[in-house]
Amino acid sequence: MPNRLTGTSAQALPSLDPRIAPDHGDYPVLAAIVEVLLTAAEGSANLQRIVGGIIRDCIDRVIQTPKTARLLYSDLQNSEKTYIGTAVEIDLRSSLALKRGTGLDLSIAGYDVDVKFSQAYGWALPPEVVDKPCILLSGNDKRALFSMGVVVARRQYLNEGQNRDGKRTLRAADRVNIWRLARHVGYPPKFWHTVDQEVIVKIAQGRSGNERMIDGTKRSKLTRSV
Known about the structure:
This protein is an alpha+beta fold. Helices cover 36% and strands 16% of the residues. Helix 1 crosses helix 2 (44-63), helix 2 (44-63) packs antiparallel against helix 4 (78-95) and helix 5 runs antiparallel to helix 6.
């Protein structure tokens, strides 16, 4: 199947990680999925822009600073962090006009594909994704950097230990099997990471939401002007 972005076939697509070579056993699967993602986003740069925006929006949507007075990802409960992963998957599917899978999150190039998001590299992979393709996303919200890749979650790539739900993580040594689409790419930073701590404290002392917002706007402008 020709690749509309490069004019080459899926088999000839270059990998962003040189360790994923055409003779890798999962290369045909990964190449087909990557081709669809890049085509849907109209290129690698657009894909990174779209995904970075999704991560920023999904995290902010859950933090809800004006309503909850929470500022950072670290303020969230574990259940809320889990929901962010679901929100990222939904927004990715919508933004790239992808279809739902029959058993997993997405249907891409004829494959059922799961989507996993983690703030580090500790993607929790359930038994049903073993030997299935997965889109792996990680975001460091403090540094506003994200990574993205596609891997077939082969059983031999997974750590032996598992949680009570039977979920296992990808072994660090086997991350070489990930087809990288983004690695430590910047995305829009959280506002509260761009201002001084003393400014945050002052804003938080406001007696009303409007007062805190006005004070924050003034101090943000002052910070940018010096």
